[in-house]
Amino acid sequence: MFELNYSKINAYNFCNYLYKFLYIDKKYVKHNSKTSFGISIHKALKEYINTRNSLSRFLEVYEENWTNYGYSTGQEMMDYYYKGIDILKRFFEYERKRNAHIVSSEDFFECNISNDFILRGTVDRVDLKDDGSLKIIDYKINIDENNENHIRNNLQLSIYAYGISRKYSKAVSELVYYYVGNLKEFRIEYMGDENLRNYLLDCGEKMKNIILTHKGNCYSCLAKELCQFSDYKRENKNV
Ligand code: SF4
Q1: What is the 3-state secondary structure (H, E, C) of 105-154?
Q2: What is the DSSP letter of 176?
Q3: What range defines the domain where residue 90 resides?
Q4: CA distance linking residue 159 with residue 121, whole number of Å
Q5: How many other C-beta atoms are found inside a 10 Å radius of the C-beta of residue 151?
Q6: What is the CATH number of the domain that holds 21?
């Protein structure tokens, strides 16, 4: 079975060579301050269910799980660290007041799409709504709610809704990006089962057969200094 997941598909859609770089050649890109900070906050949020009674324990979890790589200076790291404390304090207070029924965090699912493809994913958070349906939440740490790429992209949350609805045999009625920095949620429309399956099968066939035709913007790519097809690397060599 060929595994499909959102990160893999996202890499393929951004640049077919990035997919090859990460998933065929199994190379890695270095973390930067934003990705490292995102990991630290996600780890703390994962433990939020277990730490709901105590803000101090919540912040301890953050400190215990702090990842310190990817920062260019010690000062930059400390700025991010204290920014994280501020974000988590406001998140804790906001969530305490709204008292959502949280089912799970970092919830793993897998389901077959066809005889050839299996879909896997991990959802940041699943809430139970009053009507018994589920709400899928993906935390966004470094991006604000005006980021058009996220507003237009309903693939990630559709994949999660598809997987989680099958895992729990329950309807998913709400899909949201939760911008943790300003505590705003942005609702996304589900693609629909048929559209999603067709998309995944089409994309999956191309990935499985390693069809590499589309190249992304090398200047905004995390692999720009390492990838053999990088325009950025080629031009900087010539300088
Ligand atoms: S550096 Fe360019 S060619 Fe290489 S993976 Fe990134 S976008 Fe694609």
Answers
A1: EEEEEEEECCCCEEEEEEEEEEEECCCCCEEEEEEECCCCCCCHHHHHCC
A2: E
A3: 2-208
A4: 8
A5: 12
A6: 3.90.320
Burial-class residue 182 by CB neighbours within 10 Å (0-12, 13-18, 19+): exposed
Domain count, the chain: 1
* Ligand 1 centroid distance, CA of 21 (Å): 9
Q: What pLDDT does 151 receive?
A: 59
Q: What is the pLDDT of residue 239?
A: 43
DSSP E strand boundaries for the chain: 2-4, 101-112, 117-128, 134-140, 172-179, 184-187
Give per-residue pLDDT as tens, 223-238.
999 999 999 988 887 5
Q: What is the Å distance from ligand 1's center to 235 Cα?
A: 13
Does some domain include residue 109?
Answer: yes
Neighbours of 70 (CB within 10 A): 18
Whether 19 lines ligand 1, by a CB cut-off of 6 Å, is: no
CA distance 175 to 189: 7
pLDDT of residue 198: 97
The minimum-distance atom of ligand 1 relative to the CA of 228 is: 4
Q: Do residues 224 and 218 make contact, with C-beta atoms less than 8 angstroms apart?
A: yes
Q: How far apart are CA 180 and CA 85, in angstroms?
A: 12
CB of 34 closer than 8 Å to CB of 142: yes
How remote is the CA of residue 26 from the centroid of ligand 1, in Å? 15
- Burial of 131 from C-beta contacts in 10 A (0-12 / 13-18 / 19+): exposed
Tell whether ligand 1 has an atom less than 6 A from the beta carbon of residue 229.
Answer: yes
Instruction: Quickly count helices (H) and strands (E) in the chain.
Output: 9, 6
With respect to residue 184, please indicate whether it lies within any of the assigned structural domains. yes
Q: Is residue 228 part of a domain?
A: no
237 within domain boundaries: no
